[in-house]
């Protein structure tokens, strides 16, 4: 009986914390259907009248560029960056976890040390490098580093997963005539699917929601992502910000991330739960 009471209290606390965390999201969604006057003039959570006008007007964006352009730009930026990050991280982490080469430990320690560097420290030299390469106002500052495995977090995460796989798998594959690349592609990569999907989800959401780096490297409005498009929606010449339209477009902006997470949450939870465990 006492155990049932303790479990009931735990569930009640979890539900309460969950409600507190999800309330801002619910409020934003419902505010998308309200008028500006109702958002600031009423405490009711539910709109008095459901209107899809904020979505239609908000999608028109500002000036000559609509959210069709912003979403298209975001996908052109996010998808290559995410795919290249995952592929390069898998290859590099496989080398650290399984292969033997000179200065391996020193290189791994140097890679781990880069995790300690805050973004504010490297943003200026990084910008100077990209500016000298004439990459500013393009998506290359995002795509090229992803292709070269510059994200140490995912390398470290994948290394822990590879180390949890039995080395007997590699030895058996070597006996069957597989080389290192075939072992990675045919044997280890399928077993690392939860970790790979977790890395994909993390990088997709982080890049999709990234505002600071997009603001630094992208100057042309025609190349703006959804985060920059939302910020531009706040710069209204009339002086009155259409918050219902901003809420509507904010809701549309997070839909891809939410859908992607729900479709892949099984592998995401499994990848987080098993990363670093010895098997």
UniProtKB/TrEMBL annotation:
GO terms for biological process: transmembrane transport. It comes from the Bacteria. The chain crosses the membrane at residues 12-33, 75-96, 108-130, 142-162, 183-206, 246-264. Coiled coil: none annotated. Keywords: Cell membrane, Membrane, Transmembrane, Transmembrane helix, Transport. It is found in: Cell membrane. InterPro entries: MetI-like, MetI-like_sf. Pfam families: BPD_transp_1. The keyword Zinc does not apply. It is a multi-pass membrane protein. Residues 71-264 form the ABC transmembrane type-1 domain. Its main location: membrane. GO terms for cellular component: plasma membrane. SUPFAM superfamilies: MetI-like (SSF161098). PANTHER family: ABC TRANSPORTER PERMEASE PROTEIN MG189-RELATED-RELATED, ABC TRANSPORTER PERMEASE PROTEIN YESQ-RELATED. Belongs to the binding-protein-dependent transport system permease family. This is Carbohydrate ABC transporter permease. It comes from Cohnella zeiphila. The lineage of its organism: Bacteria, Bacillati, Bacillota, Bacilli, Bacillales.
């Amino acid at each position: 009986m006492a155990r049932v009471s303790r479990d009931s209290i735990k569930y009640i606390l979890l539900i309460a914390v969950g409600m507190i965390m999800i309330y801002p999201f619910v409020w934003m969604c419902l505010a998308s259907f309200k008028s500006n006057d109702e958002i600031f003039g009423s405490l009711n959570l539910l709109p008095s009248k459901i209107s899809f006008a904020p979505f239609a007007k908000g999608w028109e964006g500002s000036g000559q560029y609509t959210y069709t352009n912003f979403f298209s730009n975001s996908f052109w930026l996010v998808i290559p960056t995410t795919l290249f990050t995952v592929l390069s991280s898998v290859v590099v982490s496989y080398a650290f976890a399984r292969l033997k080469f000179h200065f391996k430990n020193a290189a791994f320690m140097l890679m781990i040390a880069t995790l300690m560097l805050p973004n504010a420290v490297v943003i200026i030299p990084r910008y100077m490098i990209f500016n000298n390469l004439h990459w500013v106002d393009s998506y290359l500052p995002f795509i090229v580093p992803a292709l070269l495995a510059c994200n140490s977090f995912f390398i470290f995460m994948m290394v822990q997963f590879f180390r949890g796989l039995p080395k007997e798998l590699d030895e058996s594959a070597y006996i069957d005539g597989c080389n290192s690349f075939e072992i990675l592609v045919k044997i280890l990569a399928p077993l690392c699917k939860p970790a790979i999907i977790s890395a994909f989800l993390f990088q997709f959401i982080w890049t999709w929601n990234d505002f600071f780096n997009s603001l630094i490297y992208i100057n042309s409005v025609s190349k703006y992502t959804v985060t920059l498009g939302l910020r531009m929606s706040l710069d209204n010449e009339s002086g009155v910000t259409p918050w219902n339209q901003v809420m509507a477009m904010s809701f549309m902006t997070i839909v891809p991330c939410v859908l992607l997470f729900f479709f892949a949450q099984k592998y995401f939870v499994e990848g987080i739960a098993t990363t670093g465990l010895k098997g």
